[in-house]
Give the backbone structure.
Amino acid sequence: MGVNINLNNRQPSGGQSLSIVWIIAGVLGIIFGGLLIGALTPTLLPVQGSAESQQVDALFRFMLVIGGAIFLLVIGVLIYAAAAFRAKPGDRADGPPIHGNTTLELVWTIIPAIIVVILTIYSYQVWISIRTIQPLNHDVEVVGQRFAWTFNYDITPETLPAGVSAAQLDETVLATLNSEEGLQFSHPQLHTWVGEQIELKMRTEDVNHAFWIPDMRIKQDLLSGRETSITFTPIRAGIYRIVCAELCGAGHGNMAGTSVLIDGEVDLRGAWLVVHEDEQTYLREFYEPEAQKALFPPEDPVERGRQMLASGAYPCGTCHVLADQNWNGNIGPNLNNIGTRAASRVGGQTAEQYLHNSIRNPGAYLVPGFGNLMTQFNDESGEPNYMPEEDLNAIIAYLLTQTQ
Ligand code: HEC
Ligand SMILES: [Cu+2]
């Protein structure tokens, strides 16, 4: 159709019009080329870790088939036109002014409009399907904070680990377990199991972040002052990287899972998704040991502080180095040996007072060479970055033992 435009004196330099055979060959080339591009896309994508990823990829592939075909058409016409309508030697005239081909304009308006309508309906269906929350799903609270993710798991009277009864619990633990807020434990990694739909309820303590697991094809913003959520159903066991996809400050790059080899063993750092084979494995290998720690907290404040920091309940590790916790953050000072130097940092402050102030009011005294970048941990529930006084005291007791 396009070749029927009246080009006056600009005939294809071959002189003859484009034969029907070439047009058919071109159309077939475009169709098969588009399909080939679609067929090759899975080689570029990460593994399909969730049921949703299959639907998302099918939609993506459909768009690439159409987009690939249009790409080949445009490039094909461009190359054809550059060759066929090239200027004859000595011809310095401008090309003929062409406008007003109604058929052509209708065709290039209607075809894209149809494609857009089809894509809208198809993507809307995929969206509805992947956002539908089934009853009785497994939910986990996700907290984004500069510069770490924390996952909070609920323990309820019905989900006590095997062999633990309410009678064995300490009074305060029991009261929290039965209270409206309930008892939770924190962990730096997200654990679930194959075939279970999981719902993530997300909030941020500070700026906006975006929670992204490429292998599950899920990505959701965390917005200040609002709770957002996302669901997915993993279909294969494994360990998958979690990433922050919203530039949130100096340590943004640390809000992603990394791993290091320690004595030949892979040690996961930061945020990862761990998908267990089944519910039994999840309970045995993850939930029950972690729930035990929360139900029977150590009496010794030093041990409590150590455990609290290891649980990822507070995001210190992405900013600080501390050998005892395997932290390797690079935003703040190295905390090795902090127990020795805390007493001599600020004249007139004991080591305890100094540590207390550096966490409750980090801007008041800046360690030489560092900016005012530390998160302020506040003592009132409801304030951002809430840290109860008991937690702070346990953390201080623990930091004071770090003397090398
Ligand atoms: C966003 C990054 C960040 C986070 C999160 C963070 N810190 Fe810091 N921290 C810093 C920076 C930067 C400094 C140096 C500036 C200052 O003194 O405030 C610092 C200083 C300190 C100091 C004083 C160190 C010294 O050598 O005197 C202590 C103690 C400390 N942080 C403990 C913690 C603890 C405990 C946590 C977790 C509860 C934590 N920080 C979380 C960035 C961070
Ligand atoms: Cu972030």
In short: Residues 51-84 form the longest helix (34 residues). The chain has three domains: 2-86+100-131, 138-296, 315-400.
